[in-house]
Design a protein that fits this description.
With 71 residues, the chain is mostly helical. It is built from 4 helices and no strands. The longest helix is centred in the first third of the chain and has 18 residues. It is extended. The relative contact order is 0.15.
Length: 71
Amino acid sequence: PEDAARKSIERVKNLYKNIGVPGSLADIGIKKSSIPEFVAYLMTRKGDLDAGNPRECTEASLTEYMEMALG
């Protein structure tokens, strides 16, 4: 099952690449130095972020997620 899941993930990544979907924030020009500005904006929308989310969004968690999404 784990092997099948990994293959499926790779196929989706390849599909996205083939149709031109960016694979990371870096692919659309976002730089690590911009993350604090994005996080500050997202924190102004905290109510929207926390709605239906089982984990509270914090500056630290948003920064971590954005750094991971840089690729």
